[in-house]
Each structure stands twice: as C-alpha cells, then as structure tokens.
Amino acid sequence: MPRSFLVKKYFAKQKPNYSELECQNDTSLERFPLAELPSGDNTSSLGTCFTTGIVWDLSVLPTLYLPTSQTGPSTTPVPLDLSSPSSLSSSASSCGEEDEGRTSDPPSPEPVHTYAPRQRMKCTGSMAHISPPEEEEERETQVSAARPAFLCKHCPKEYNSLGALKMHIRSHTLPCVCTTCGKAFSRPWLLRGHIRTHTGERPFSCPHCNRAFADRSNLRAHLQTHAEVKKYQCGICSRTFSRMSLLQKHSSSGCCSTTV
DNA sequence: CTGGGGACGGGGCCC
DNA sequence: GGGGCCCCGTCCCCA
Q: Which residues form the C2H2-type domain (predicted)?
C-alpha cells in the first residue's frame, strides 16, 4: 500500500526548527556522516523551539482533510492556552532539547505561526486533487497564464518546473535500491534511512531518556511523549495527544459522545 | 482502546 | 538545475 499523501501544503513558510534533534551516537555516523548530522547552520539560525506551543484542535480536522467543498480558510488550529507558565514549565524543560548545550531559555512564547497541515496530492493510483476552491482557481489561472506544465507520464500529476517533475518521477522509478533486501526508494536518503533498519544504527538520541532512534521523525514524535502539553488537542475535552492519529482515534471513538 | 515505536513517502527549501 | 536534507505526516504493529 503506497503511503503517499493526499494534500499539498500551503502554510506559512516559517519553519519550526527541529535540527536540534541531536545526533548523539556519533559512532554511527561514520557511514553517513553528512546525512545524519544536523547542520550547524540550522542551529545557529534557530529562534524557535520544538513545537510545544502548537496544539491542534481536532475540530478543525474535518475541514482540513475533506475535499474542497467543505474546506474553509478558518481552519487555523486552536493553540492551547500556554500562557500559564505552570503548564509550560515542565514541557518547556522537557522540550528544551533545542537548548541542549546552548541555553536554558524556555521555549519562548511560541512563534505563533498559524499552523495548517500540509495539503498534498496523491500521485499514485487514481489521483485525487484536494485543494480549496481558491487554490483551484488560482491553479487554473496559472496554467492558463502560459506557464508550462510538465506532466508525469506515470500519473496525472503535473508540475510547473522540469526539476520538480524529475523529482517526482523518481517516486515512480525508485532508483535507489537496498543491496541487502532489494527494496527500492525514490531518494538516496530514504535508502540510507532504510539501511539503518538493517544495521541497527540509531543516530538520533532523546536527550531526556537516552532512547535512540534511527529516524529523526520518530525522535520528534517520541519527544512529544515527554511533553506534558502535547501537540494535538481535542476541541471537546481539551485532552492533548502526541499524535494526530491518536487524536483522531480519540475523537472517532466518541469523545464526550460527540461525533466530529 | 490507547499510547508509542518503526518504517516510510513526498513536497519544499537550501546549497 | 540537481542533490541533500528537513519537516510533516501516515500506516502498521505491538505492549
């Protein structure tokens, strides 16, 4: 089953910086030193911390994930009220990994970037363009405005640059093949990550419990488990969850006997 | 049922 | 323009 995603993102370009997720098991970096090391530039450029201040409200999810008809611009997730220092204190310290070796500053009142999930287009199998009407219109006008369209011959997807198309085509051709198991990937770094499943390398360590992960995203998710105030909040009972999937399960299982 | 870890995909950005 | 990497996110599985 392809794990492709449906919607294309369009949210503020301001990126939270996760490059603080340290690679601590340096010995494991011998094979892929560049790939795994956080860039020093990133650390110097950060002003943000791990996403502590961003909390999702499931009540907005339906609009975010439904096809165009029900989408609306007012889908800004509701940030949890973090103004209370007490509620932040523990999570601040626990999520202060960005400060590791740098400062002990609390995660600063989060850069309140309105935070909408990426929206993506599925590109394999039958394709579903999920985009709000505005974007739909915009896209059409752009296409009609003589911008060349580069079409994927493997799927209906189209791009406005050849580079983007070439990048996309790799997801069809899967040129990076694992010599151990033969599994193929679209990009070298995906293969490198996969190879770690064979080698057991876990370059990403949790600063709180010293648990190590092979995948930075998994460390990021793990860090949520240390946070007292988690990222995804039920709009009904205000309970917070470390993952959206948990929040969705929580909601679908009938939180407060309300169907969202 | 819930929470969490493992594996992975894709777009976007930066160099 | 291309490659590498980051970030966000999902699915699956297990305790």
A: 150-173, 176-203, 204-231, 232-250
